[in-house]
Write a structure and sequence with these properties.
Layout (H helix, E strand, L loop, with lengths): L2 H9 L8 E7 L4 H4 L23 E9 L7 H7 L8 E10 L7 E8 L3 H10 L14 E8 L3 H12 L7 E2 L1 E5 L5
Antiparallel strand pairs: 1-2, 1-7, 3-4, 3-6, 4-5
């Protein structure tokens, strides 16, 4: 999202960081045991509490941008996902998302997932619910860690070596749906 669109949403009383989401919790590798703590980054801004070091417990965001907290519309979420199964969750490659905040000097290390029919189906089904499309291209991933920008390449290299996922090689076991923070 560009700055104009965020401001336009704010004028309409919509705060992007307060939008709802539905996630699929997955088991994660022990990233906190792989990366030196001096490489990790955590935001001091309480509105960005998700930007926080190693992510040993992972999730795949199925849809972000719901106009309501997913817990508040859980019945609707469950209805559109009725009969859906996650299938196999496999890493395609390890990569990086840069910080989306000018005042935060971090890189988000992610396991980019193989795009499966099951993940696309969940995203499409959830898109039937009232939402704002903050990410026009669905790029399923599992966040592994937030690291200081200067350690980005070292962190990717270490994770690839230690977890054997230079190309693929790391599967995640689906644990269940996550409806986000309680409203």
């Amino acid at each position: 999202m560009n700055a104009y669109s965020v401001e336009a949403l704010k004028r309409r009383g919509i705060v992007v960081s307060k939008l709802g989401c539905v996630m699929l919790d997955v088991d994660g590798p022990p990233i906190s045991k792989l990366l030196p703590t001096t490489w990790l980054y955590s935001s001091s801004n309480p509105d960005r509490r998700w930007i926080s070091g190693a992510q040993d417990e992972g999730h795949v965001t199925l849809l972000y941008g719901l106009l309501d907290n997913a817990n508040a519309i859980r019945e609707d979420v469950d209805e559109v996902l009725d009969g859906w199964e996650p299938g196999q969750i496999t890493t395609d490659h390890v990569g990086v998302f840069p910080s989306t905040f000018d005042d935060e000097n971090y890189s988000c290390i992610v396991a980019h997932l193989a795009v499966t029919d099951e993940l696309l189906d969940a995203h499409a089904r959830l898109s039937l619910l009232p939402h704002i499309d903050t990410h026009p291209t669905y790029r399923p991933h599992v966040t592994l860690a937030y690291v200081r920008k200067e350690f980005e390449k070292d962190a990717v290299r270490l994770i690839e070596q230690e977890l054997g996922c230079v190309v693929g090689g790391l599967d995640f076991t689906p644990l269940g749906l996550n409806y986000g923070d309680l409203a």
